[in-house]
Every structure is written in C-alpha cells, then in structure tokens.
Design goal:
By secondary structure, the chain is an all-beta fold. 0% of the residues lie in helices and 47% in strands. The chain is built from no helices and 10 strands. It starts with a strand and ends with a strand.
Length: 116
C-alpha cells in the first residue's frame, strides 16, 4: 500500500526558504518517478516538479531556478527545497507517485504560507 507523508510546511516571509519532506513507503521508492504538486486557495491542483528514477528533474516555469527536488534513498524521503519564496507560493503542497492527473496517489499535504 502506497503511503506518502509530507512535512516541513509553515509560515515564511517573502524571499525566505523552506524545505519540505515526504516519507514514502509501500513501493520501490528508489526507482519511482516522484512529483511535488500544490494547490493554492480556490485553484486546482498544479504540478510543481518531477524527479525521475534516473535522477533527471523537471520544473514548472513558475518555480524553475528557485525550487529543487531531490531524494534520499537511505531515508525513503523526497525533498523540495524552496528558495526565494513568493506570496503566490502559498498553497498546500503534496508529494505524489502518480504520473498524471488526477494524481490520486498523494499524501495529505503540508501548508506553506508566504506572507509578511
């Protein structure tokens, strides 16, 4: 059974940084293509970043150059380092094993609020 548990969200000022974590279990994490998604208030779920099993990465234009996705296989954990955060980054962030919408295989999410 796939389980994904996110943590690390919180309140941060514009320009600040946060690192999100997602502990995975129930599948072969080291080889899996993994994604970070987010959902801002009143908006649909959107894709943020992908880390492929072969270690290639892909980012949404809105976060490229500021966010970095990575994983620690020894800890079965996926990360999202978020720098230079903007108010429009306020959202619930999810990690997901799903390869396409509606991204049903995802965790419960962690809230990120970017505000002064």
């Amino acid at each position: 059974q796939v389980q994904l548990v996110e943590s690390g969200g919180g309140l941060v000022q514009p320009g600040g940084s946060l690192r999100l974590s997602c502990v995975a279990s129930g599948f072969a994490f080291s080889d899996a293509d993994m994604r970070w998604l987010r959902q801002a208030p009143g908006k649909p779920l959107e894709w943020v970043a992908t880390l492929y099993g072969g270690r290639a990465t892909h980012y949404a234009d809105t976060v490229r150059g500021r966010f970095a996705i990575s994983r620690d296989i020894s800890k079965n954990t996926l990360y999202l380092q978020m720098d230079s955060l903007k108010p429009e980054g306020t959202a619930v962030y999810y990690c997901s094993k799903s390869s396409s919408k509606p991204w049903t295989e995802r965790g419960q999410g962690t809230q990120v609020t970017v505000s002064s």
